[in-house]
Amino acid sequence: MHATLSPVLDAIEDAARQAAVARATGTVINAPSRPEPTVLEANSENEGVAAVLRHRLGLDDHVRLSVYEDANHPLFPAARRFRAARIQLSHGRRRYLFIATYEDGTPRLRFSLIAPCYACLSPVPSVVVDTLADFGDWLIGARDQRKASLFRSSPVHRADCPVRGD
């Protein structure tokens, strides 16, 4: 059982749950005080995407995020050449995958958690996770989470999945 212990991920999960409960109860929590970084200010696109997610989740610089191109989803609606970024937050065998995309008419990156579809169990963008409280909501199974815009249209769904929309 020691292989599943991860003090880093445990602390992030605990903070996320606390943020979700604080938001639900109307308790004031300290939001990031620094302005959000932009992808354009980073040394690379991947570093920029990681910096934005790190900022929104309030992660320390020592928390490792791996960023790579997502082969299945577009960066923005109708994009053919530009692919979304996939971000992995992991420690040992435990991991969380996020996807960064732009939605119609928004210049702001939107992060979604990759999780199994409730109908076909395929790993698809499931819920929007733009704050630590959003991540906490997913961890505790809150009912009022925002579905990811790519949830129904993800090509990763099985062909016979009843929630798949084209």
Summarize the structure in words.
- This protein has 166 residues and is of the alpha+beta class.
- Helices cover 25% and strands 25% of the residues.
- A five-stranded antiparallel sheet has the order 1-2-3-4-5, covered by helices on one side.
- Strand 3 and strand 4 (109-116) form a beta hairpin.
- Helix 1 packs across helix 3.
- The chain is globular.
- The mean pLDDT is 87.
How large is the radius of gyration? 16 Å
Shape: globular
Strand order of the largest sheet: 1-2-3-4-5
Structural class by SSE content = alpha+beta
Report the average pLDDT across residues: 87
Q: What proportion of the residues form beta strands (DSSP E)?
A: 25-35%
- Sketch the topology as an H/E string, one letter per element: HHEEEEEH
Taking the sheet with the most strands, its summary is:
5 strands, antiparallel
